[in-house]
Amino acid sequence: MPAYKRVLLKLSGEALMGDDAFGINRSTIEGMVNDIAEIVKLGVQVAVVIGGGNIFRGLAATAKGMERASADYMGMLATVLNSLALQNVLENKGVRTRVQSAIEMRELAEPYIRRRAVRHLEKKRIVIFAAGTGNPYFTTDTAAALRAMEIGAEVIMKATKVDGVYSADPVKDPSAVKFDRLTYLDVLQKDLKVMDATAISLCMDNDLPIIVFNLTVPGNIKRLALGEQVGTIVAGRNYGS
Predict the structure, then answer these.
(1) 156 close to 203: Cβ distance less than 8 angstroms
(2) Is residue 241 part of a domain?
(3) Which of 84, 209, 217 is nearest to 149 (CA)?
(4) Range of 129's domain?
(5) pTM of the full predicted structure?
(6) Which among 220, 83, 201, 104 has a CA at the least distance from the CA of 158?
(7) What CATH number corresponds to the domain at position 140?
């Protein structure tokens, strides 16, 4: 039996690149889709928020002199490209999917309407939330926290390329220690970069747990859905007691 009825999966745009330097790696996205399809078959309702860093990074462009709001809007459009790509592969696997965009573009996606999104989930459709929050100065991490709370998700599954949260970058620092469990305040005080501070604060205020896990390990999404200990959980002190 699944441990969760409804989850929000947060994917980074970089996760779609695989070993490529840019864009979308076909084998990577297909592996991702197979794992998502498995938990849909278990009866889990799945929503997805995906970043756009494999195509365009607003903060990087701002650092090079581009006006922040314009750069952020361009980053939002990159998330739409990724959302449509993910939808295409999911639909090819026979998984019913809807893309809802925070920026209206009727020819490509539905506008974001909370009640409609919940209805899609109840009908076992995957809902992909594109274009972040629709506002500049907010990251897709914040969009994930916001949408998760709006649709009543029980957990945010934050997909990364490492197997949890470490005290330092494990690639650069061999002595880095992996945490199995953290509180929201631990993340903020230690500046652990799980998600941005706005997203963590939103989750803390609404007691929404976050599980950080390695997306590149096949089957991890299913293990999480079944309640197995995978990666690092970020929650309140009393979570699970």
Answers:
(1) yes
(2) no
(3) 209
(4) 6-235
(5) 0.94
(6) 220
(7) 3.40.1160.10
